[in-house]
Amino acid sequence: MNARKTEAEYTWKDMEIGCIVTEPGSSQYYRTGDWRSQVPKYTFSRCIKCGVCALYCPEGCIGTNADGHFQADLFWCKGCGICARECPTGVISMADEEE
Amino acid sequence: MGKKVGMEVSLAIAEAAKMANTDVVAAYPITPQTHIVERLAELVANGELDAEYIPVESEHSAMSACLGAVATGARTFTATAGQGLELMHEVLYVASAMRLPVIMSVANRALSAPLNVWGDQSDLMAVRDTGWIQIICENGQDAYDNTLCAFRIGEDKRVLLPVMVHVDGFYLTHVIEPIEIPEQDKVNHFLPPFSYPLPLDPDKPLTMGAFAPPILFSEAKKAQEVNLRAAKPIILECWAEFAKIFGRQYKPIEQYRTEGAKILLLTLGSFGETAMAAVDKLRDAGQSVGLLKLRLWRPFPFEELRQTVSGAELLIVVDRALSFGGPGGPAFSEIRSALYSEKKRPRILGFVGGLGGRDLMVAEFEGMVKRALEMKPSGAEQEFEMYGVRE
User: Fold this and answer.
1) Residue among A7, A17, A20 whose CB faces B215 most closely
2) pLDDT in tens, B292-342
3) pLDDT tens sequence across B138-158
4) Which backbone phi and psi does B222 adopt, to 5 degrees?
5) What residues of B are in contact with residue A13 (Cβ under 8 Å)?
6) Are the C-beta atoms of B307 and B252 separated by less than 8 Å?
7) A22 → chain B, closest CA residue
8) β-strand B296-298 against B289-294: which pairing, if any?
9) Which of B201, B217, B246 is at the close of a domain?
10) Domain-located, residue A83
11) ipTM of the complex, rounded to two decimals
12) B390: exposed, middle or buried (C-beta count within 10 Å: 0-12, 13-18, 19+)?
């Protein structure tokens, strides 16, 4: 990732014509994780690696970790809890975000 | 010299859009704009204009289709009036904020209720803050000329803003006037092809109309405000270039017999033609009366206003729209606000008249001057009157 301006560093003079975003895929730099009031907690011993949580995740932020278990990337995870509701083996529970 | 022909003003506006080589027209017919888009549909159907005509199901769709067309880099024209302008209202803000130069004629009409299709500037005033460049026309030649100018101004890379060209419904749209239609090559010389700097292109993907959270929204709006104000010198530059090529010079505020005038009338749109005749009569009778005609509504010509009223003692602003429960007619209250900081300013009085197609004739403009001279400077109720209402 190149050194890029954070939103707070943009002045009105930095705005592209009509606020057009010229860089494809730039939404990946947008930290939606700080919208979160709840955070997923995992009991990976129950995980059967089915990936249902990733299919249901509206943010598309669930991938596999080093052990092949499915896990949300907290940079983007908004804490909606859909994964916890859909997981067939009860791996995920939602806890209050304390960050 | 171009050919001077007798032509209905609506058809002249369509002719201007045709001679500008418009690529896309998306419009929905509504009185009193109908003849403009009917003529354009005909020109596309018979092959005289090589453009895409998108017949839409509403004005909201018309403006939305126009945004998409401009986003691909197409020169785009539409027209509407009254209720139609209101139906596309929310999309108007999108056009200006996204810097998409749609060019639009508005045949100014009253807003319901009661239902009324006639000339009135209530629709114009309701879209005041949409961020469009707004030019108000006085006669048919002006409408033809400024439709051409609108393309050049809006599409200028330093501007890239949508432009509304206002023409009074029926008073202008449905009258036949002698209009000079220039040669096509002169129009081509005046109006370079449109080239949008960041068009939609599958090979170079971009995001248009993304959302802006609170941390960016104010910066986006400041950029828009600075951009609209910065358009003024380019509008003046366009009118100077137009004068060089076609011999007619337009100004943000036109002056008529204002030399040494103690009393100034100020009108918007076709009222100006009638008011000129009234000024002639009053001048002949020895009264020191002149006329200002406000052509550029947005960006507002503050400097020109201050300059043109500086010698006057009384300024009478005539609005063709009402601001219910507000500080008088919309133009009146803006003009008064624009002059508030001046050390020496005329007394400013406002009349609202000519609503919903009510004619204001020469005698009425004379009457307004007479009435203004009678009005005592004694508080807000005395500063604004609806003119010609039966008691």
Assistant:
1) A7
2) 999 999 999 999 999 999 999 999 999 999 999 998 899 999 999 999 999
3) 999 999 999 999 999 999 999
4) -65, -45
5) 223
6) no
7) B206
8) unpaired
9) B246
10) yes
11) 0.87
12) exposed
